[in-house]
Amino acid sequence: MASQKKQAHLLGFIQHGVNSHATGMWRHPKDKVNWDWSRPPYWQHMARTMERGLFDAMFIADELAPYNNYEKSSDACVKYAVQCPTHEPSTLVPIITTATKHLGVGVTLSTAFEHPYSMVRRLSSLDHLSDGRIAWNIVSSYSKSEWDAYGAEMSDRGHRYERMEEYMELCYQLWDSWAPDAIIADKDSGIFADPAKVKEINFEGEFFRSKGRSFCYRSPQGRPVLWQAGSSDRGRDFAAKHAEAIFAVHPNVDRMRQYSDDLNQRLVKTFNRPPGSVKLIYGLQCIVGESRAHAQEKYEQIRANIPLEGALAWISGHFGPDFSTYDLDEYVQNIEIPGIQGLFESIIYAKGGDPITVKEAALYYAMGMGMPITVGTASDIADTLEYYMDEGGADGFMLVATYTPGCFEEFVDLVVPELQRRGRYRTTYPGTTLRENLLAD
Ligand SMILES: Cc1cc2nc3c(=O)[nH]c(=O)nc-3n(C[C@H](O)[C@H](O)[C@H](O)COP(=O)(O)O)c2cc1C
Questions:
Q1: Residues 122-159 pLDDT 10s
Q2: By residue range, what is the domain housing residue 230?
Q3: Mutate which of 58, 108, 136, 139 to test ligand 1's pocket (most atoms within 8 Å of Cβ)?
Q4: Which DSSP category does 224 fall into?
Q5: Which of 69-78, 273-282, 321-330, 339-348 has the lowest average pLDDT?
Q6: Do 59 and 247 form a contact (C-beta atoms < 8 A)?
Q7: CATH code: domain of residue 376
Q8: From the alpha carbon of 369, which atom of ligand 1 is closest?
Q9: Hey, whose CA ends up nearest to atom 23 of ligand 1?
Q10: Which of 218, 247, 386, 399 could make a disulfide contact with 229, Cβ separation 3.0–4.6 Å?
Q11: Which residues form the Luciferase-like domain (predicted)?
Q12: Count of CB atoms situated within 10 Å of the CB of 213
């Protein structure tokens, strides 16, 4: 019976910039027509569109500086708008949440250069101002360009995860600093809050120290929904320990299933959490048309916008090596990468495990960050979503933009009703906060 089947969660994946995750998208004739991405109306319209489609959230990716490792320069990123320019993501939150009532916002904020004290203060303030609709995508800055921009020496993955563990420990203490009933606000006695219920933190760690009380009282969700996208062995452990939702990219259903099984095993065996207690949200690129031929035509048009040099600069930025020094026909399989392991695997398995050349990898990745691409009618796309949920263990999908806001309008108008007709998607928001909506079945 349709009603017993898992229902999809949907999020719109974007960046506070011109290009998001489809390299060359700004060139598309339908991209941002009459919209200025650096001004509020564009974001308000996109937020209202996603809310019309009952999405859990708009999810804003981020990095802190243009990549600079392709030809040892950020020239190609600037030239082809490879995730550049990108503006600060949390500034969008009040704009999005005042234009909507239910839509959440996932905001990517790096732990690398911000002290946990101010991170907690910022996120709690945003959780208050949005009535509890914030998620935090916890990242630690994987790109050397970010460290260069901040004038710091880049640390390795292991060190970053160790530091992030301690970071979270302090964040939890700060979030829990104010008891839910700490505020009395008794005008007669003049007592606003009970100091006994506002814990003073005295944290002495290897990486951080903090002495004092959190400056924000408890926010509607207590803490933002914790989100993670680390995919290395260490990253998966971090996610299984801390995350309430995970964003992962896998190019096919077998890899999705392996990841889902692995994550659920870690939850149960290592962290004593129930299986299925972390929502697995998989990246997906959908190109919907009135007919299959129409959708295919749209796919070709999107692909034609990708500049090869921009694509190479992007994989250099995400994975670390300077791909200008590799032959375009060389296979990527055996290259050791310091960057985003999980996303690198998406291209390694893009051809089902068959060798893939540097050129193929770059062009595939530049379409939509290595996400599987589904091209077809609304019914074809709904079939794919059902398949990934039933066979791949997906709880929902991070929909990567192709051109904006049009791709989200089309998805909401065409695919959402089809999913609802099949009983595979909500017809109303089940809760008030993002956590209530996202963690609902
Ligand atoms: C699907 C996906 C999306 C990610 N998005 C971001 C991002 O927006 N900003 C960022 O700094 N890191 C991002 N990352 C990087 C990870 O959060 C993580 O810090 C990095 O991959 C290093 O950890 P790993 O080697 O365990 O994957 C993303 C990773 C994945 C797999």
A1: 999 999 999 999 999 999 999 999 999 999 999 988 99
A2: 2-439
A3: 139
A4: P
A5: 339-348
A6: yes
A7: 3.20.20.30
A8: 1
A9: 230
A10: 247
A11: 39-392
A12: 14
> Whole-angstrom Cα distance, residue 219 to residue 132?
7
Provide the strand spans (E) within 142-278.
183-186, 191-193, 201-204, 209-212, 225-228, 245-248
Contacts of 283 (CB under 8 A, 6+ apart): 13, 247, 248, 249, 368, 369, 370, 371, 372, 397, 398, 400
Atom of ligand 1 nearest to the CA of 235: 26
Atom 5 of ligand 1, nearest CA residue: 61
**pLDDT classification of 2: cutoffs 50, 70, 90:** very low
User: Which positions ≥6 away from 135 have C-beta within 8 Å?
Assistant: 57, 59, 104, 105, 106, 107, 224, 225, 226, 227, 245, 434, 438
User: What is the distance in A from the centroid of ligand 1 to the CA of 107?
Assistant: 13
- 199-243 pLDDT, tens digit each: 999 999 999 999 999 999 999 999 999 999 978 899 999 999 999
Enumerate residues 6+ apart whose C-beta is below 8 A from 236.
230, 262, 263, 266
Q: What's the gap in Å between 230 CA and the centre of ligand 1?
A: 5
Q: Specify the pLDDT at position 1.
A: 44
Which residue's structure tokens are 């008794």? 186
Is the distance from the beta carbon of residue 247 to the nearest atom of ligand 1 less than 6 Å? yes
Interval 256-263 mean pLDDT: 96
